[in-house]
Write a structure and sequence with these properties.
Elements lengths: L6 E9 L4 E3 H18 L1 H5 L11 H8 L3 E3 L3 H5 L18 H17 L8 E5 L10 H9 L4 E5 L5 H15 L4 E9 L17 E10 L7 E11 L5 E2 L21 E2 L1 H22 L9 E4 L4 H12 L12 H4 L6 H8 L9 E8 L3 E10 L1
Parallel strand pairs: 4-5, 4-6, 11-12
Antiparallel strand pairs: 1-7, 1-8, 2-3, 6-7, 8-13, 9-10, 12-13
The chain binds coenzyme A (COA).
The site of coenzyme A has 21 residues, from helix 3 and helix 8.
Length: 376
Amino acid sequence: MDWTQRPVISATGLFTPPETITNEELVASFNAFVERHNAAHADAIAAGEVAALEPSSVEFIEKASGIKARHVVDKASVLDPDTMCPRLPERGNDELSIMAEIGVTAARQALETAGRDPADVDAVLCAASNMQRPYPAMAIEIQHALGIDGFGFDMNVACSSATFGIQTAADYVRAGNARSVLVVSPEITSGHLNWRDRDSHFIFGDVATAVLVEDAAMAPESHWEILGTKLKTVFSNNIRNNFGFLNRAHPESIGGADKLFVQEGRKVFKEVVPMVAAMIVEEAERLGIDPQTLRRLWLHQANAGMNRLIAQRVLGHEASADESPTVLDTYANTSSAGSIIAFHKHSADLVAGDAGLICSFGAGYSAGTVFVRKVA
Ligand code: COA
């Protein structure tokens, strides 16, 4: 064991599905579904036996969330009012599965940016809020596709999967059990979103990210020192998804709305903002960092209002787009990948010595902080 290893972020990668859905397209599809539903149940609605569904609105979505569009892996099926979910053709066992495919694309970009030969990577963590199947692990399929000799496993901590993955990778490096670890987060969130639910149909989008965590001694000259990581979980039912392999015992309930993403959005907002702001400030203090000196916050991308409040509490003033960049407008909430997309797209301009924070929060509740400093 080499106890002198220091973990750094060598590079990141991003795969963005080419298709996008604008709020206008999304609302047109949702409202067509509502009209059809209300027409089909007109008598029951008139008799007061069934509640009429309410239409959605572009203005509400943008104002409540900051989301203007989202990328998806299957636009046509999501927008079809008769389908309203991704319909991806099943692939044979000898073909790369879609989660692995998009994860591999993001991972290759990270490896190329770092100039890293896959033969020198020791481990792959597939850290995401949904896995396509229980086993073999998505991480092992990604490892195999990339030609990595080592080990891989899946981990799910919902929206905090990527930061939990980064700490896990950093701990392997610190402990001397690995020198180079890929944390891959393929998030096909369109599959767990209830596109027929007015309160949440606008929230999510699809993407894949990758973070290469390595021993500083092998990292490329330009990299990000990991100053410290902190994880926190507090049980809450306010974001929940009851889908699972035991549901097959109750086939009639498999299609139930609770087998998809469900949330009490207001409660999440109220409870998570103070929890995360306090966690960031405490961790900064522990690391001897004045939070007001942080050059940039790459926050979880769920809601623009939440990020505004958290950034204000951490920085002590209203954050500019430069201090707390958003990708919500074009990507929506991509679960654990959100803060990594923000970091990937908005970090190249920082200079040596600049410190910043990657931070996630979401279901569990779960939250993770990764304080970083640019080196060279
Ligand atoms: N179109 C139009 N109106 C809508 C609507 C839609 N799609 N969805 C809800 N509304 C209406 C509601 O009916 C309600 O109307 P009322 O005041 O007449 O009752 C009003 O808008 C406010 O609804 P509410 O759900 O309280 O909105 P909100 O301001 O809390 O915003 C969220 C909703 C989900 C965007 C917000 O709560 C949020 O982002 N929370 C945190 C989410 C989060 O981070 N989740 C983690 C996911 S991993």
